[in-house]
Structure formats: C-alpha cells, structure tokens
Write a structure and sequence with these properties.
Elements lengths: L1 H37 L4 H9 L3 H16 L12 H38 L4 H28 L3
Helix pairs in contact: 1-2, 1-3, 1-4, 2-4, 3-4, 3-5, 4-5
Length: 155
C-alpha cells in the first residue's frame, strides 16, 4: 500500500495544482480577451498577467516528478515502501496540491484586477504585476515545503 499512497500524492500534486492553474488562467483570460477586443496593442501585457496563475500547475508537476523519482517509478525500479512511508510522501505532496489549487484561482482573480489597471492605464503595467505576484509567494512557499519534505525523507 505504501507505493500506492506515494503515487497518489504525486497524482494529487499534479491534478489539484493543474486544475487551479487551468481555472486561474481561464478567469484571467476572459478579462484579457475583453481588453484585447478594445485595444489589441495591449495583448502582450495582458497575456503576461493571464499566464501568471499557470505557474502553480508547473509547481505541482515538479513535485510529482521529484516524488516519482524518489519512489523509483521513473527509473522503472519502484522502492519497497511501508504504508507509513507512503503516507509521508502523500502528506509531503499535499502543500503544493492544496495551496496550488487555491492560490492559482485567487491569482487569476487578482490578475483580472491587474488587467483592469492595464486597460485603463497601460503605463502602470509594472505596478499591476505586483498584485498577482503577491499571491504567487504562497504557492512558492508551498512548493518549497513539499520539495524539502520529499527530498529530506529517507527511503
């Protein structure tokens, strides 16, 4: 059962963070499309803001790769794990899975507000990046906790 729990953790990191990113990018994309309809010259600026919530999906995928490598799945030689060890890997994947899901959605909503800034005052683009970047901070913290938890756990 240990390997099942470890792989489940990797899957959840990918799935939940990926779902959050897809939702966040979609939310921001709707606002970006509206701005580009009115002023196509703002495309590159709003595209950057739209893409920001996509990082959580990348973070989840990174944690999944690290987990699967630790479990020996990627090399084709899975390690023997106790149920407890598998649950530890599962638990180590949960920070980026859960925080990635939630922060990507809220980062998408914050990106919408920043896209509104760019729509009215494109010269404020640099400042508008700061608002969704603040949400990103918590995704990065969750990423670090997940990675450190996985790599420091001896198998």
């Amino acid at each position: 059962m240990g390997i099942f729990y470890g792989v489940l953790g990797a899957a959840l990191a990918t799935l939940l963070a990926g779902i959050g990113s897809a939702l966040g990018v979609a939310i921001a994309g709707q606002a970006a499309a509206g701005v580009v309809t009115e002023d196509p010259s703002k495309f590159s600026k709003v595209l950057i803001l739209q893409l920001l919530p996509g990082t959580q999906g990348i973070y989840g995928l990174l944690v999944a790769f690290i987990s699967l490598n630790k479990l020996g799945i990627l090399s084709g030689a899975p390690v023997e794990l106790s149920t407890t060890e598998g649950l530890v890997i599962l638990g180590a994947c949960l920070p980026i899975a859960i925080v990635g899901l939630i922060s990507a959605i809220y980062q998408g909503k914050t990106a919408v507000a920043s896209i509104g800034i760019v729509a009215k005052k494109p010269e404020q683009f640099g400042k508008s990046l700061l608002f969704p970047a603040m949400v990103e901070t918590y995704a990065i913290l969750a990423l670090l906790i997940s990675i450190l938890s996985i790599v420091s756990f001896p198998l």
